[in-house]
């Protein structure tokens, strides 16, 4: 019988909460809307919006991580 409070259950909510933040934060690859260069940027808020500057052409870009869109600034 399934016991949701079994401490050995791999889907235990506490175990998921302990490892989830590290899995979704950190870095992500974006494609520059100006020159199509692909580079890695730091992600502070995986569901928010952030602005960066292309490392190749210097053009500004705005990333909406929640909607997974990149637009020119
Ligand atoms: Zn660029």
What's the short version?
By secondary structure, the protein is an alpha+beta fold. It has one helix at 13-24, and strands at residues 26-31, 38-43, 49-53, 60-64, 69-72.
Describe the structure.
A three-stranded antiparallel β-sheet has the order 3-4-5, with no helix packed on it. Strand 4 and strand 5 form a beta hairpin. The protein has a domain at about 25-70. It has one helix and five strands. It is an alpha+beta fold and about 70 residues long. Mean pLDDT is about 80; it is low at about 15-25. It starts with 12 loop residues before the first helix and ends with a strand. The longest helix is centred in the first third of the chain and has 12 residues, at about 15-25. The protein is elongated, with a radius of gyration of 18 Å. Zinc ion (ZN) binds near residues 32, 54 and 57.
List the main descriptive attributes of the protein structure presented here.
73 residues; alpha+beta; three-stranded antiparallel β-sheet; two-stranded antiparallel sheet; 16% helix; binds zinc ion
